[in-house]
Every structure is written in C-alpha cells, then in structure tokens.
Design goal:
- By secondary structure, the protein is of the alpha/beta class.
- The protein has helices at residues 8-15, 52-68, 83-94, 123-128, 138-143, 166-171, 187-200, 215-228, 245-260, 270-275, 288-293, 329-344, 347-350, 359-362, 365-368, 373-376, 397-410, 416-432, and strands at residues 42-48, 72-78, 101-105, 118-119, 145-146, 149-150, 153-154, 156-165, 208-209, 280-284, 298-302, 312-315, 317-322, 355-356, 383-384.
- The strands form three sheets. Strands 8, 9, 10, 11, 12, 14 and 15 form a seven-stranded mixed sheet that branches.
Length: 449
C-alpha cells in the first residue's frame, strides 16, 4: 500500500498511548521449531482468543481439519482475550515473527494498520477452497475491505439478544400462536410488555437483566438503539462528527427508564436471575449454551425494534493474515485452506450461539433445527455496528471512552441530555486523534470500502 513498515520499537512507542491490560509476555511469539506432526510437510501457526466453550468448539473444528488434511500441521495457540491479545499480535507482525493465521474482531481491523500489520487475503485462493464473496452478507463482507482489498474474512457475527422465559411469558399472555414472544415495535409496547411480565414473575426477581453498570453492555445497547433511530457518527470522509444528540438523548432516556420504573435491580447477576425465573435478560448470544445447559424453557430474539427499525448490535470474529515479510508459499496457502475450511464447516461453531457468516450454512436443515438460533438468525440482515474507524471495535478506545459515560446516564449519576453532549464532544476529540499504530487520523486511514 506504499507505506513504510513499522518496527517493534516504533510500535511500542505508539502503544504507549493505549491502555493495555496484562503483561507483554511473548512466549507465543516463537517460530514453532518443534518437529512437524507425523506425516505433515507444512505447518500453519494459528493464534486465536477463544477460551471456554468457544475454545472447545474451535479445537474440535481444528481436529476435523487435521483429519481431513494430514499433510498440514496446525500449531494453534490461545492467547488472553482483549488488549493483551491485540498487543502481542501487533508486535509479532511488526517484528516479523507473526503467525500464519490469526483471529480478530472485525471492528478492530481498521485500526490495525492494514497493509503494515495485516496482509490482504488472496480471494482467488479462498475461492479455490470454496469461499467466495457471494457466500456472505454484503455488509459483513465489506466491513473487512480496506482500500479495495480484503483484510478480514468473517467467521461469524455475535449479537446482543433479548432472552425471554416462555413459561413466564405464557402466564402473562405474551406469547404468540407460534410459541414465541409477541412482536414489539415501539417503546410504549415494550414497557407494556414489561409491566405485564412483572405481574406474572416470581417475587424478589428483576423483570429484565440489563447490565446497567457494565460499560461494554451499555455501550452495545446504545449502539443498537441509536442505529434503530437512524443515527450516524461521522460523514463519509471521517472529517466531521454527525452524531445526533437529540436521538442519543432519546436512547439514553429509554435505557434509564428501565431503572426508574423498577424493572431492573442495578448490580443484580443478570444470568443467574434469568435462570431463577426472571422474565427477560439482554445478553450476548454466547449465553445460549449456558441457558440451554440449564434446560430452561426460553427463547431469544434480536433486541426489540422499539424505535421502528430493526437493528441489533453485532460484532464479528474474523480471520486475518498477520503481516509477514515475503508472505507466500505453502504455509500461506495452508492458512487460506484452514480458514476456508472452518468458515465452511461452522455448524458446530453455531452451537456456541454465534451466527455463522457463511450464508450457505444458514440454509442447511441442520442449522434450521437449532433452537433458539433459528429465531434470531435474522440479525444477520440488520447489524448495528460501530463506525469503521481506527478507534472502534471490541475493547477498543471508543467503547472504553463512551461506555462509562452511557453507564452514568443509565445509573442516574448524569442526565441523558448532558451525557449525549459529552458523547459528541468525545467523538470530536477521537476523530482528530491519531492511531498509535501508524500515526494517522481516521480521515487519513483509507477506511472506506
């Protein structure tokens, strides 16, 4: 892309401007000098951030690939989720010690200096192994396109959902003939639903779990409902803030009302309350295995379109190619082959609640039988995402900056209109700020697909 490289010393200086949790341990940066697996003639070094249930699913998918491709030795490493992972990945790429394949949240790709810390995918090679642009939701595919080249291959989308207890809603006459929650299309209808559910719920429980004092969840909910109102962040050139404080205030007042009307117990354990009988909780789709494991009679739908338009906050896990000097050869082709295999065989990944990005998977009989996944798969078509700028994305600067401000409104320590103005002020500051990865502002980042 015609920009100079970035060495480790420069990168460390740049990262000094970011808050990075954890240590800078580099045990995972080795070149994997141990012997190849028996019968293999090519090694792929693969870094990911999947732990817990996601980690078990990924290991199973990797084992499936190994069985089908005995000539490729996959050496996978799971690193600490969040900023520690991104720091190690950036420094490995800057120091020419990067793995052949990695995973990132899609929202972080623009800030990862594509072309310097990330290499572009060979879309012809992906097609050779069965993955093509037409297999994707166009908006999702284009989130990974920077300056006309694909830098992130989506594996899934993970979304915020409205989980509901069918047993409680049935008592409150809030289930339709299909056994699912009745549609809600306005804030008035939503609070009417909460009022009816409260009358049918167990005493001592909250009506809805809303993560009122969690900066990440409050930010994700804000993004969803602000998008429902048609709110924007910046103009097409990322030179002007277009954030609408009136719309933002409307969203913040909506979130705050759940507390003032007594539907939420601030600080209550949301998942535990739901398992114990609370009618609703808003959680990420990764809670599906937990609630299914508890054998609850429940459903899950995208966040209600209370402002008229469907929009549910969404992020995406995506495969990336960390920068390697002279990338190519057998290991690079094997990395393309591995990523394509996992994308095309994501049925097991869906068991963890994520919506597979590969749309042919969504039309299979096996996926259509998954519950409650088949109820919220429509979220693929109305994703509410953060703006495509360097400071956005999971655990990114934008969420860290604006999340606590949103919490202050929901919890009542600041008025919604004042918080909306503060948000706009902080967005103005961020838009003029330089990415510590490459020293460029959002307007200079070439972020428009």
């Amino acid at each position: 892309m015609g920009r100079p490289g970035l060495n480790r010393r420069q990168l460390l200086a740049g990262l000094g401007g970011l808050t990075v949790a954890g240590s800078f341990g580099f045990a995972a940066l080795g070149t994997g000098a141990d012997a190849l697996a028996s019968g293999a003639d090519t090694r792929v070094r693969y870094w990911n951030l999947f732990s817990g249930g996601d980690g078990y699913n990924m290991i199973s998918m990797l084992d499936s690939f190994r069985a089908a491709n005995p000539g490729i030795d996959v050496k996978d490493s799971t690193l600490q989720w969040g900023n520690p992972f991104y720091t190690k990945l950036a420094m490995a790429a800057a120091g020419n010690r990067a793995p052949d394949l990695g995973v990132m949240h899609m929202g972080r790709v623009t800030g990862f200096s594509p072309g310097r810390l990330l290499d572009a995918w060979d879309v012809g090679l992906l097609a050779k192994y069965g993955v093509r642009e037409e297999d994707y939701n166009p908006a999702l595919w284009n989130r990974g396109v920077i300056d006309g080249r694909l830098y992130a291959l989506p594996l899934d989308i993970h979304v915020q959902l409205c989980f509901y207890r069918k047993d409680v809603l049935k008592k409150a006459d809030l289930l339709g003939d299909d056994g699912r929650m009745i549609p809600v299309t306005s804030t008035t209808e939503w609070f009417d639903v909460l009022k009816k559910a409260r009358k049918a719920q167990k005493k001592g429980l909250q009506t809805i779990g809303l993560w009122t004092n969690d900066q990440n969840f409050q930010w994700w909910f804000f993004v969803a409902f602000y998008t429902q109102l048609g709110g924007t962040w910046f103009d097409d050139t990322n030179t002007e803030v277009t954030f609408d404080t009136d719309k933002a205030t409307e969203v913040l007042e909506f979130l705050r009302r759940h507390v003032t009307d007594g539907y939420v117990i601030p600080g209550a354990p949301t998942g535990e309350q739901f398992v114990n009988g609370a009618p609703f909780t808003w959680e990420g789709n990764w809670s599906v295995p937990v609630f299914s494991g508890a054998e609850l009679d429940y459903g899950a739908t995208p966040l209600p379109p209370v402002f008229g338009e469907q929009a549910t906050h969404a992020e995406s896990h995506a495969f990336v190619l960390p920068h390697q000097a002279g990338r190519g050869g057998a290991a690079n082709e094997a990395a393309h082959r591995l990523a394509a295999h996992i994308v095309r065989h994501a049925q097991q990944w869906a068991a963890g609640g994520h919506i597979p990005a590969h749309t042919p998977t969504l039309s299979t009989d096996a996926y259509k039988k998954l519950e409650p996944q088949n109820e919220y798969v429509s979220a693929m078509d109305h994703q509410a995402t953060e703006p495509k700028v360097w400071f956005a994305g999971s655990t990114g600067v934008l969420a860290q900056d604006l999340g606590p401000v949103a919490v202050s409104s929901t919890m009542g320590s600041a008025k919604p209109d004042a918080v909306a103005r503060r948000m706009k002020s902080r967005l103005t500051t961020l838009l003029a700020s330089k990415n510590p990865m490459d020293g460029r502002t959002a307007a200079q980042g070439g972020a428009v697909a």
